[in-house]
Each structure stands twice: as C-alpha cells, then as structure tokens.
Design brief:
Blueprint (H helix, E strand, L loop, with lengths): L8 H22 L8 H21 L4 H25 L7 H6 L6 H27 L10 H26 L3 H14 L21 H10 L9 H25 L3 H4 L1
Length: 260
Amino acid sequence: MSFPRAGSFNHFRKTLVIAAGLASSELRGRYRRSILGPWWLTLGAAIGVLGLGLVWSTLLNVPTADLVPRLAVSLILWQFISGCVLESAGVYVRQGQVIRNFALPFWVYPCQLVFRHLATLCHNLVVVVAVFLVFPEKFSGQAYLSVFGLALTAFALSGAAAVIGSIGARFRDVEPLLQSVMPLIFFVTPVLYEPSQLGPRMYVVWLNPMSYLIEIVRGPFFGNIPSPAVYLVALAFTIATNAAAYLLLSSKGKRLPFWI
C-alpha cells in the first residue's frame, strides 16, 4: 500500500482529486432511482430547524428571529461534523474490498468521507439561505470568513477520520461506542444554546474541540468574529489530528488490509 509522502503537494492534490471523484460516484450510486436524491436530507434539515426553532425559542424564552438563524447554521454544521465522526470508525472497513485490490493512499478514504458530507452540507445551505431571506437583518457581511473556518474544519475531520478509522479497523467496538457517546457530546456542544447561557459552567463547552470548529464557521455569519484563541485551538486540533493520522498510518498502515 502506498502512502502520501510528506511535503509532496502533487501527491496531496491527486489524493484530493481521487477522493472527490469517489465521493461523487458514491453519492450518485446512493441516490440512484431517487426522485429528490440528497435533497431528502435537506428537507429533513429544514424540518429540524423549523421544529427545534419553534420549540426552543419557547423553552428558552428567546425571540424566534434570534434563535432560528443561529440554529439553522449550528444544526447543519453539527450534522456535517457528527456525520463525519460517526462514519469514521468504519471508513476503512467499508472500503475493505477496494483497499485489498487497489494501491490507493490511505488518506483517500477519510477525504472521500469528508467530501461526501461536504456535498450534503452544500445542499443543506439552501436552508440557511432561506432562513436569512426571512431574517436578513441577522446576516453579516463578514460571512465570507466562514469559508476559511469550514476548510479548517474539513481538514481537522479528515485527520480525525483517519485516526478513528484506523483504530476502528482494529477494534470493532469503536463504532458502537461513538454511537453511544455522540448524543452526549451534542449537549455539550453549543448547537441549541449559547455558551454564555451556561453561566459559570461555560468552561465545559470549551473543553469540547467541536465547539471551536462550529464557532469558527458560525460566528462570522452573525458578525461575531471568533477570538484569535479560538482559531489557534482549532488550528492546533487540526494539526494534531493530521499528525496523529500520519504517524499512525505510517507505522500501522501495512497491517490495515489484514484488519479489514
């Protein structure tokens, strides 16, 4: 099995191109013979934003105009992040036949996973656009900074998926463990609420790296540019996950085909 060499930009570019092609092929195969295709996910996201927005605005006594736009962005980001994490445990197992028959870099499969969920996120952005058309005063001209945050988040998730996928290939308990833990992580991630609403327990939110990934994408939509500390933590997490993935696949990559 080949592995991308450090510092090889051309190899990195080819890996991304292959991953994007595989993700596109997977999406076409998954939604073949479906009338709406991936738009079913967008419909589900719209129903979730509308339902949770109405319920939580009442429970938290927050104006709908304040809660729904933030909830729309937050919920779609959470679906992207949690989807990548939940599927990462089986990212190599599900591609076992391909891995055993084709000498593709192991980075391809985590990137394929992230690209597929990015495509879904792009579909779901229709919901965000619709919400901001209803509440245009909440949209900030600094939203373009979210593109940088989303790119950083995608790189972080690619590294995390490679690490979790490698461990999940060796230990099949990882996937059900993630399915049990992720609902708990959802409640310590500021999706349905603001960190400030937790008062002195707000620090619990910032112990969760997903909070930083959400904040660097969500904040600019509303003109709340995250502090340099938030960007630094997100960058450190991205470097850490990708470095761990590189070291793990470099040392254990040859065993991966036998684990799956």
